[in-house]
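Students often ask why inverse folding is considered easier than folding. One informal answer: many sequences map to the same fold, so there is more than one right answer. In these notes we will look at a single instance of the problem. The structure comes first.
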C-alpha cells in the first residue's frame, strides 16, 4: 500500500480529506488533532505503520510496517445521528464485520470493540470524541485490522488469541481493498444507525450469544452471566444465575468466556 494506490482505490468515495503516513505515532492522535482544527466529515487518516498505536486505557496496539491497517475515520454527527452516538462503536463493528462477510469470512463481534474470526481477535476499535462544550463536535473511529500474518502480535504478549484476515483466508489481500470494503459498509450502516434493524444486526453478530461469560472491569469483581442481547443504547444485556437481567454499560470492560 502507498499513498497513490490508496487514493486510486478510494476515489469513488466522497472523502472529506485523506492523510496517509508511511509511519505515524497513532492515526487516532492525528485524526483528533485534524478534527479539532476543522477536518470535514468523512475525512480519513491511514498509516502503513504505527509506533504508538493505542487501545483502550492506553493499552498498546501493534501495527507493524507493511502488514496491517491502521485507520481513523472522522465523522461529524448529523442531527439524526446525535441521539445515537453511543451506537458509534456498533457502527464500526458492523462495518468491519460486513467487510469480513464480503471476504467470505465469518466474523463475530466481541462486545464492545473487537472483531473475532474463529474466536480470535482480528480487529480492534477505539472511538474517541472531540468535544465542543457538552456537544460532540466530531467522532474519531479508530480501527486496527490484522491483514497479513506478520501483523499478529506474538501470542505470549496477548491475553486473548489473535489472527489475521489472510491467515483465515489462506490467500493474500490488498489492504486498499479492505479499507474500501469497510468504508462502503460505514456509509451503509451510518444511514441506519437510529433504526431497530441496526441493533438487531449488531446483536445477531454478537460473539458468545447464549453462552456464559465473565465481564471484568478494572479492579472490580467480575460479573458472570449469559449473553442475552443489547439495549437500545448498545449496552450489553446478560442474564444472571437467577435469570435476572444485568446491563453492562460501556467503559473499560473485558468480556471473556466463563471458565
Ligand atoms: C482495542 O483496544 O482493541 C482498540 C484498538 C484500536 C487500534 C486502532 S489502530 C488505528 C487507531 N489508532 C490508534 O492508535 N488506535 C486505533 P483494547 O480492547 O484495549 O485491546 C488492546 C489489547 O489488544 C492489547 O492490550 C493487546 O493485548 C491486544 N493487541 C494489541 N495489538 C493487537 C493486534 N494487532 N491484534 C490483536 N490483539 C492486539
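Output (designed amino acids):
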Amino acid at each position: 500500500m502507498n499513498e497513490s494506490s490508496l487514493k486510486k482505490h478510494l476515489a469513488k468515495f466522497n472523502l472529506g480529506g485523506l492523510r496517509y503516513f508511511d509511519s505515524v505515532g497513532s492515526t487516532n492522535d492525528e485524526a483528533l488533532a485534524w478534527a479539532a482544527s476543522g477536518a470535514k466529515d468523512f475525512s480519513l487518516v491511514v498509516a502503513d505503520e504505527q509506533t504508538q498505536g493505542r487501545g483502550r486505557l492506553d493499552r498498546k496496539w501493534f501495527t507493524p510496517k507493511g502488514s496491517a491497517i491502521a485507520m481513523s475515520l472522522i465523522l461529524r454527527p448529523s442531527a439524526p445521528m446525535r441521539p445515537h452516538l453511543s451506537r458509534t462503536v456498533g457502527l464500526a463493528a458492523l462495518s468491519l464485520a460486513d467487510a469480513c462477510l464480503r471476504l467470505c469470512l465469518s466474523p463475530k463481534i466481541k462486545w464492545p470493540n473487537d472483531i473475532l474470526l474463529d474466536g480470535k481477535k482480528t480487529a480492534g476499535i477505539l472511538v474517541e470524541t472531540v468535544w465542543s462544550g457538552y456537544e460532540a463536535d466530531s467522532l474519531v473511529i479508530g480501527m486496527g485490522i490484522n491483514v497479513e500474518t506478520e501483523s499478529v502480535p506474538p501470542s505470549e504478549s496477548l491475553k486473548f488469541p489473535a489472527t489475521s484476515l489472510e491467515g483465515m483466508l489462506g490467500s493474500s489481500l490488498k489492504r486498499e481493498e479492505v479499507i474500501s470494503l469497510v468504508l462502503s459498509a460505514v456509509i451503509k450502516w451510518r444511514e441506519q444507525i437510529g433504526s431497530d434493524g441496526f441493533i438487531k444486526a449488531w446483536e445477531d453478530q454478537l460473539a458468545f450469544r447464549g453462552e456464559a461469560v465473565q465481564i471484568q472491569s478494572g479492579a472490580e469483581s467480575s460479573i458472570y452471566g449469559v449473553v442475552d442481547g443489547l439495549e437500545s443504547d448498545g449496552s450489553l444485556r446478560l442474564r444472571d444465575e437467577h435469570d435476572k437481567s444485568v446491563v453492562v454499560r460501556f467503559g473499560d470492560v473485558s468480556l471473556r468466556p466463563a471458565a
